[in-house]
Amino acid sequence: MATDITKTGQYQVMDPDEVIVGFEGLIKVMHVLYGPNFVGANFSPKCCNVRTGEKMEKNVHHCTHNDIQGHAITKQCFLKGHQSYCCEWMEIDGHRVRCGVRLKVESGGCGTHRSKLMEHSNNLLLKNLIAGKLDSITWRQLSDPVKMAQNEANAAQGRVMNDTKLTILAQHSEKIEELDAVGFLPQADHRTYSIHIAFNENKIQRDRTAVEERRLRAAERKSGLTVNLKRAASNIKEAMTSEHPNRKTAEVEKKGLQASSRVKKCSRPDPSVFKNKRGGKKVSDLPS
Fold first, then answer.
1. Which of 115, 141, 226, 239 fits a disulfide with 108 by CB distance 3.0 to 4.6 angstroms?
2. Which residues face 21 on adjacent strands?
3. Could you name the domain of life of the organism this protein comes from (predicted)?
4. Pair (199, 184) in one structural domain
5. Both 176 and 208 in a single domain?
6. Which of these three, 113, 142, 171, is where a domain ends?
7. Is the pLDDT higher at 170 or at 262?
């Protein structure tokens, strides 16, 4: 079943320098030239535009090649070079496509793309190839001129970029040789140079790691000093706190001793209360 390939179809990309030799060569590439609606069950003799798949309302088309009355169109009319589809390029909704309108090969063009009015006519090339006026044509002659110009511009830009890259690489190689001459780099062999670069990168990484480790150790020392200072301050505070109760206790004890020292001592008992140890009389018994 034929479908409109204006926006969805992709024409097969061919080598621009590939040669199509004679009408026999053209028959072999008609499926590429006309697209998928020319292949297999997609093809219909009623198709009046091989790109859109549009069909004529009448059931039968007539081919009048060497036949005044004409005969019903079949696929053989295309394979024998009597009928063709317009191969001129046009732009529809931003898509570059072939026209695709059915035409009689002898006319050299469709109603829109008349060969006499065109500077370069693909239909005229095919007409002359079928008639034997041309031995061969190339795909470059049948390619979209707009896309060809874009491709050439891209290729030119690519060549400029490639030349620039080669220039940079050449300058780089010269720099390597200059540095190698003073013993800074190994021989300018890309494998040795890669090893040298890897070694330098590894050394840089090791240096960065060492710096980071020193920074961490310094931070740890600073943190430890802070902890020690805090611990010492805490110890001093605890010592001062524990000293105050002891001092208060000592003061209380001292005050107690002072108070006890002020207590009146008991006076010596009167000797009169005791008897004379040698049997004498008490002092109270003595005459006054």
1. 115
2. 136
3. Eukaryota
4. no
5. no
6. 142
7. 170
26/197: higher pLDDT:
26
Q: Which residues, listed in sequence order, are joined to residue 91 by a DSSP beta bridge?
A: 96
Q: Are residues 132 and 218 in the same domain?
A: no
Which one, of 121, 137, 25, lies nearest residue 81 by Cα?
A: 25
Q: Which residue range is the domain that position 226 belongs to? A: 189-246
Q: In this predicted model, what pLDDT tens digit does every residue of 124-170 receive, in sequence order?
A: 999 999 999 999 999 999 998 888 888 888 888 888 888 888 888 77
Q: How many domains does the chain divide into?
A: 3
C-alpha pair distances (Å), 8 with each of 45, 79, 106, 231: 23, 26, 31, 81
* pLDDT at site 127: 92
- pLDDT, residue 109, reads 87
CB 87 within 8 A of CB 122: yes
User: CA 88 to CA 119: how far, in whole Å?
Assistant: 12
Please state, in angstroms and rounded to a whole number, the distance separating the CA atoms of residues 184 and 206. 20
SS3 88: coil
Q: Decide if 64 contacts 18 (C-beta within 8 A).
A: no
> Do 57 and 101 share a domain, yes or no?
yes
| Side-chain-facing half-sphere of 81: CA atoms under 13 Å | 19
Six-digit token string for 119: 């500077």
Instruction: Go through the chain and tell me how many residues it has.
Output: 288
Q: Give the residue with greater pLDDT, 172 vs 107.
A: 107
pLDDT of residue 21: 96
pTM of the model: 0.54
In a domain, 265, yes or no: no
Identify whether 251 is part of a domain.
no
Tell me if 64 sits within 8 A of 112, measured CB to CB.
no
- Burial code of 184-202, b = ≥16 C-beta within 10 A, e = fewer? ebeebeeeebeebeeeeee
Residue 130 lies inside a defined structural domain of this protein: yes
